[in-house]
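User: My collaborator sent over this chain with a note saying "see what the structure looks like." That's all I know about it. Can you take a look?
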Amino acid sequence: MNHLPFYIPLFFVLTSFLTIYLFYKAAKENEKFLIVISVWITLQSVIAATGFFAVVSSFPPRLLLLIAIPLISIATMFFTTKGRAFVNSFEVSTLTLLHSIRIPIEIVLFWLFLNRTVPQLMTFEGRNFDLLSGLTAPIVFYFGFVKRRLTTKQMLAWNFICLAILLFTVSNAILSAPTPFQKFAFEQPTVAVLYFPFVWLPGIVVPLVIFSHLITIRALMKAAKHKNVSSPSLITKQVA
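Assistant: Without extra context I'll predict from the sequence alone. Here is the result:
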């Protein structure tokens, strides 16, 4: 990755820290989260520096560890008492705004494509529609939490659609990476995520975005069980 222009990793690092910051603010500045995320980002960075994730012949692929570990941790949050208490503490409005970071992430992916470290299908010129999620996030935030004009069903629909788009993009990334699971993009596989600092994309950014959707969906579904859920003002009070 040393051949990349300096502004690409720099821009990505800043975007990653912005993602962490917004999630931290949504968690009402939970110190335990900050400690855990700091340890995890340091650990995967040190491991990535050794070239561990760049070994693509192993089975299962080492790349899967980057996203599997945080996703398993996220899943446990919804099945433990302390985990659910943490999930219930979030400000959903801030989590909604967090999805705006998908705009700079798409810019980074496009730059990486131009520098032949990800295939075109991983960009907005290919199969990646995640830019739509980033562009609509401020709109949903404004009309859902500032103007309070969106209903629970509308905000749920947006979250489900954006989550589906993200999972589709992640599946394309896995299937285009140079691992035993690769199915396409053999002429230019997804290799950037095997190196620092881009290991943070599957290891930090994507899990936090997925977690944000899941927390919001849970909060909105809980709100939908109350009376008068079609009232935007009531929805905002319940999930904010």
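A starting point for your reply to your collaborator: The chain has one domain: 7-138+151-217.
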